[in-house]
Design brief:
The complex is a heterodimer. Chain A is of the alpha+beta class. Chain A has helices spanning 2-8, 15-26, 31-37, 39-57, 61-175, 178-181, 183-201, 205-249, 289-301, 319-339, 364-370, and strands at residues 257-260, 267-274, 307-312, 347-351, 372-379. By secondary structure, chain B is mainly α. Classes of the chains: A alpha+beta, B mainly alpha. Chains A and B meet through helix 5 of A and helix 3 of B.
């Protein structure tokens, strides 16, 4: 009985069938979809597994294993085909997502490039503006520096001009010998001018200008103070020189005699013109133009001297007649000189007759010489 | 007696002929099964070459064992069993091909997933860079307005 029982007992489930059952169990959830994809394969697998179970129950283990293996293969194949479809769909979905992502990335990259370009332009603009502002500030600084330099130069030029003006004032003062006639002011001007030049060298233009101004004022004061004394001295000196020149020039006139005949403070240069007249004639004889031209030229050359035109005669005759004759003769010379362009305002005409004879009246030669006209230059 | 003797001879000849024909038929079936086994073995080599990702090594090993089993059964002249095993081996080949395709598709899917992930990372980075650029631009505009 035990042997029969043992022979009738269900043997252990073959491994092939166990594997199939596990495989089916693991794919239980998606089995409907797998079956929908490959209905023939799943149905065949189910049929084979059912047979395998029956053969296991009836202890036909070889057939059971064979059917279980075939059931495994069918179900695995169905699962693989289902997986293929799923993977293809997934790949298609992923491809689509990739395309979208690539489009999105391309769009974003384009936007980014655009924004970066804008940013670069903005940055460039900001940099350019900063550079421009820096340049402007630098230009302003340079302009201020240039203005300061120009101002300094202007101050320097002004100081130099004022020093030059002060120097001119000093030279002007020198012309009136202020060092001699206004010593205090002149010395002050000299010191101030030296101070101005020192300040100029030290680039202290303000002090230089002030000192130069003060130097000019002192020099002007010195010049003003010295001028009257100088002019007085100078005039005296000039007059002396002119008198000497006159004394040199007068004897060059042909046919005249010249002498210096001082009377008191008054100096007299006397030009004696003899033999202008014949016998008792009041008019000038012909042929004396040369001497009259010479006298006229001398009078014009020295226009500041007061001049006397004095007529003289010899002593033969009545005094009043001689005086009248001599005066007429002086007048004749006066007229001749006026005809030659001499300014007659400075001429004083007189006749002294036989007074002050030039030489002895006893001889005819002497009397001829005394009948004369004298041109007298008066001066101190 | 002669008739009986001739009848026996005929039977012997018929038996000999039958035996010879049956042996020739067995030999032909054996050769056919051997060709099938060889064909499938060469297919296994092709399958191994196709399995670039080494995803179905177990299934191929199982197929090889079945082909060896078929070879042994053929040697024992168990031809029906050989045919069963070869039939199962053919179906296993189909399964292996399907699984190789799955493995390749899965690898392709992984590549796509990696590519998509990379794209998404690049999108995120680009989006951040874009936002940073816009923020920086706005900051400069505010500072210089």
């Amino acid at each position: 009985m035990l042997a029969v029982g043992a022979a009738c007992a269900t043997p252990p489930k073959p491994r092939e069938l166990e594997v199939y059952d596990v495989l089916r169990q693991n794919n239980q959830a998606r089995l409907p979809d797998i079956s929908k994809r490959s209905p023939d394969l799943v149905a065949e697998a189910e049929r084979r597994s059912g047979a395998a179970h029956d053969e296991w129950q009836s202890n036909d283990l070889d057939e059971c294993r064979a059917n279980a293996l075939l059931a495994q293969i069918k179900l695995k194949t169905a699962i693989a085909l289902y997986d293929q479809d799923q993977l293809k769909a997934q790949i298609q979905s992923l491809s689509s997502q990739e395309s979208h992502a690539q489009e999105e990335l391309a769009g974003l990259s384009k936007d980014l490039a655009s924004e970066q370009e804008k940013l670069a332009l903005l940055q460039k603009y900001v940099d350019a503006r900063k550079t421009a502002e820096a340049d402007k500030a630098q230009a302003m600084t340079e302009q201020q520096k240039a203005q300061a330099e120009q101002e300094k130069l202007s101050q320097q030029l002004a100081a130099e001009q004022k020093i030059a003006t002060a120097q001119l004032a000093m030279r002007t003062a020198d012309t009136v010998e202020a060092a001699q006639y206004a010593k205090a002011d002149y010395t002050a001007a000299t010191d101030l001018l030296a101070k101005a030049q020192s300040a100029l060298k030290a680039s202290d233009f303000t002090s230089a200008q002030a000192a130069a101004d003060a130097a000019k004022r002192s020099a002007d004061l010195a010049a003003a103070a010295a001028k009257p004394q100088y002019e007085q001295a100078e005039e005296s000196s000039q007059n002396k020189a002119r008198n000497e020149a006159l004394a040199r020039d007068a004897p060059t006139i042909p046919g005249v005699k010249v002498r210096i005949d001082p009377r008191g403070d008054l100096q007299r240069l006397v030009i004696v013109v003899p033999e202008l007249f014949t016998k008792r004639e009041p008019n000038i004889a012909a042929g004396h133009d040369m001497v009259l031209d010479g006298i006229a030229g001398l009078l014009k050359k020295y226009p500041n001297y007061p001049v006397q035109v004095i007529g003289y005669t010899d002593n033969r005759g009545r005094s009043t007649e001689l005086i009248a004759l001599s005066a007429a003769r002086a007048q004749a010379v006066y007229s001749a000189l006026a005809e030659r362009g001499v300014d007659t305002k400075r001429l004083m005409v007189s006749g002294l007759g036989g007074e002050e004879p030039f030489t002895d009246n006893r001889s005819s030669a002497g009397r001829a010489k005394n009948n004369r006209v004298e041109i007298v230059f008066l001066y101190h | 007696m002669t008739k009986r003797k001739g009848s026996w001879r005929g039977a012997v000849v018929a038996l000999a002929l039958g035996t010879a024909l049956t042996g020739r038929a067995f030999a032909g079936e054996e050769d056919d099964l051997q060709r099938q086994i060889d064909t499938q073995k060469s297919s296994v080599v092709d399958l191994e070459r196709l399995d670039e990702l080494k995803a179905v090594g177990d299934e191929i090993a199982l197929l090889r064992s079945w082909l060896d089993e078929a070879w042994n059964l053929r040697a024992k002249h168990e031809y029906d069993q050989v045919r069963d095993v070869l039939d199962r081996a053919l179906k296993q080949e189909d399964l292996i091909r399907a699984k190789i395709i799955v493995s390749k598709l899965r690898a392709q899917e992984q590549r796509h997933e990696a590519a998509l992930k990379d794209l998404n990372n690049r999108i995120a980075r680009t989006r951040k860079a874009l936002q940073d650029t816009v923020d920086k631009k706005k900051a400069i505009e505010r500072t210089n307005s």
